[in-house]
């Protein structure tokens, strides 16, 4: 007897942990952690964790819209001149808007087929590098980029629970101390340290 289990596909996306990052002595910005947990065959990694800023969401929406002209994409939370990054209500309102934006996008099969979306959600590549990767101007493929980011960045809360056995001893042993992605005090950070210097201006 052959039993075929038909599991319902799901994609859980959380936008959380807003943090103020200093760009230089005059400019700061907020980035947000995007956490993905899924069993969808569309995704290279079933769990991932990256940090993105509002400007990168704007870029993503523009690129997705230009590739899917007939689809009306959901709106991003509006960029208001009165936005105050020190006001928790402003920050949380934007965070909720960004999460709703991603939730809606991830329900659309056509948008899910866009490699830029996967690079945005599962690597820390800049928009320029994502464009280069998608257009074949890099030595690495989209899947390579996602796998190599994951190998640098092994600490995912849900994955850890699922393989509980050795907890994350194996992960911390295999962590490369030269990568600059060592253990972090904050469990939500997934071991990624933001580097404002690498951020596009």
TrEMBL record:
Name the UniProt record assigns to this protein: SNX10 protein
Residue ranges constituting the PX domain according to the UniProt record: 10-127
GO terms under cellular component: endosome
Bias-annotated ranges (Basic and acidic residues): 157-170
Cross-referenced CDD domains: PX_SNX10
Keyword entries, A-Z: Cytoplasm, Endosome, Lipid-binding, Membrane, Protein transport, Transport
Pfam families: PX
Disordered: region residues: 157-201
Keyword Cytoplasm: yes
Protein's cellular compartments: Cytoplasm; Endomembrane system; Endosome
Swiss-Prot/TrEMBL GO biological process terms: cilium assembly; intracellular protein transport; vesicle organization
Family of this protein: Belongs to the sorting nexin family.
Keyword Acyltransferase part of the UniProt annotation: no
Source species, domain of life: Eukaryota
Membrane topology: Peripheral membrane protein
Record's compositionally biased regions (Low complexity): 175-189
């Amino acid at each position: 007897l052959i039993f075929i289990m038909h599991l319902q596909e799901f994609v859980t996306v959380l936008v959380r942990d807003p943090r103020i990052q200093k760009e230089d002595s005059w400019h700061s910005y907020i980035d947000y952690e995007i956490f993905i947990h899924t069993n969808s065959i569309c995704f290279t990694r079933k769990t991932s964790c990256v940090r993105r800023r509002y400007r990168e969401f704007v870029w993503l929406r523009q690129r997705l819209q230009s590739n899917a002209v007939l689809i009306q994409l959901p709106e991003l939370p509006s960029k208001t001149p009165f936005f105050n990054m020190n006001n928790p209500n402003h920050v949380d309102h934007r965070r909720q808007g960004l999460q709703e934006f991603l939730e809606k996008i991830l329900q659309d099969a056509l948008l899910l087929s866009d490699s830029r979306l996967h690079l945005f959600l599962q690597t820390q590549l800049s928009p320029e590098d994502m464009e280069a990767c998608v257009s074949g101007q890099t030595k690495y493929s989209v899947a390579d980029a996602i796998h190599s980011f994951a190998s640098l960045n092994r600490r995912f809360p849900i994955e850890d629970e699922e393989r509980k056995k050795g907890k994350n001893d194996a992960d911390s042993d295999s962590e490369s101390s030269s990568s600059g992605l060592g253990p972090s005090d904050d469990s939500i950070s997934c071991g990624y340290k933001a580097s404002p210097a690498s951020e596009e201006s």
